[in-house]
Amino acid sequence: MIESSVARRARRGLALWRDRGAEIRPMPAGGLSVPSCSEPGRSYWVSLVVEGRCGCADWRLRREPCKHIFAALVWAAKRRQRQPCERRVA
Ligand SMILES: [Zn+2]
Fold first, then answer.
1. Coil, strand or helix: which one is 33?
2. 35 CA from centroid of ligand 1 (Å)
3. What is the CA radius of gyration of the chain?
């Protein structure tokens, strides 16, 4: 089966969120801290602005959404689901 690289990263990002989502944190200056799945104790800075940015080697090389960006997207979507009403602007 041929799987696109983006689909593979989306699947790995979902797995990363499932395993380590509790460690994803918003950063004071903006963006998110997302744990590395290959290096324990390491985390990457991820921005979801526009198409997303990540500090990992994969993103720097390809400039395409990596698993950390996908994990951050799932994290952000889940957070929005939890607080749909308080954030509503009249
Ligand atoms: Zn990354």
1. strand
2. 9
3. 14
Helical axes 67-82 vs 5-20, angle rounded to 10°: 50
pLDDT tens digit sequence for 33-43:
999 988 889 99
Give me ligand 1 centre to Cα 90, in Å.
Answer: 36
Number of alpha carbons in the 13 Å side-chain half-sphere of residue 49:
5
Encode pLDDT of 12-64 as tens digits.
999 999 999 999 999 999 999 999 988 889 999 999 998 899 999 999 999 99
89 Cα to the center of ligand 1, angstroms = 33
Pair of tokens at residue 29: 């200056």
Q: Ligand 1 centroid vs 78 CA: distance in angstroms?
A: 19
